[in-house]
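Board notes (copied after class):
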Amino acid sequence: IDFPGCLVPHFKYQENDEHIYNVHPEKCCGGCCVSANICTGKGTLYMPFYFHDPNTKAVIGGEYDDPSTPQIRKLWAGFAKECCTSADNFAVTFPPGVD
């Protein structure tokens, strides 16, 4: 795990010591914060972590805010579950070509 920004989690995925993806949410404020949108629920009801090319830093397979773009989303499970358990819900859309 790598935290290049002040408050933004950033994960590196590797296979056989080869850097395949960076996985992190969309950032703002010079990379120090996660970009949120209260109107759509991004950053409040769900948090999308997008797959990025490690060399170009571009989003793989789409663009930010497109639900069909490959991503890992932590989903809001409701007040009771979020408050009273440590369980988390995720939705995963993989990049093209992943076996």
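Comment from the instructor: DSSP finds one helix and seven strands in the chain. The radius of gyration is 14 Å.
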